[in-house]
Amino acid sequence: MSHAVPALGVVVLCASGCVWYLPAVMDVRAGGDRPRSRRLAATACLTGWGTTALLAPLLLTGAAWPTIGGVAAAGGAVCAALRSRALVERRRERRETDRHWAVLGGPVPGEPARPRRAFTGWLLVGLAAAVAVFAAVLAGGAASGARLAGAVAAGAVVTLVFLGLAGLRAHTTARRG
């Protein structure tokens, strides 16, 4: 397949992703007006979308697939690290807020349970993992019907495992709320 087709797909994806990265730009630009966890999450979002946008020129210039994959993996790793740090920071901020409410003696307000959000998050991670496993199995050797069947089976197993985890997580989230 020509590099131009995936490049066009990346450009269209980046254009449609403005619903995520434009609010993230506003959060980063707001500086101290936003909590640190929110700014870190916005930085993670911008890193992910920036990495995706960087893939378009690489694809158009005809860079080798290992180079493109390396750039995507490095950007994904940085994005995941920033998002993980944002989650840690959010928990710290929540504990601090709980301590402040405890000093006031009133009930501690909590966030409502979001079982759909938990389900969707786990499901999306599972689908991404399934695609990665599928691609890894196909890239492991010469194309054949058995290899394709194995890749489909491996992707299906990963999807089912994460679907089960998503259901379990949504159930525990609903019970907590």
Would you give an account of this structure?
- This protein is mainly α.
- It contains 6 helices and no strands.
- Helix 1 runs antiparallel to helix 3, helix 3 (36-60) packs antiparallel against helix 4 (65-104) and helix 5 runs antiparallel to helix 6 (145-176).
- The longest helix has 40 residues, at 65-104.
Secondary-structure class: mainly alpha
Largest sheet: none
Q: Determine the fraction of residues in helical runs and give it as a percent range.
A: over 70%
Shape: flat
Order of helices and strands: HHHHHH
Poorly predicted segments? none
* Rg (C-alpha, Å): 20 Å
Using DSSP, what is the number of strands? 0
How many helices does DSSP assign? 6
Overall mean pLDDT stands at: 85
Strand content: under 5%
Distance between the termini: 49 Å
List the helices and strands and how they pair.
Elements lengths: L3 H13 L1 H13 L5 H25 L4 H40 L10 H25 L5 H32 L1
Helix pairs in contact: 1-3, 2-3, 3-4, 5-6
Task: List the main descriptive attributes of the protein structure presented here.
177 residues, single chain, mainly alpha, 0% strand
Can you summarize this structure?
By secondary structure, the protein is an all-alpha fold. 84% of the residues lie in helices and 0% in strands. It has helices at 4-16, 18-30, 36-60, 65-104, 115-139, 145-176.
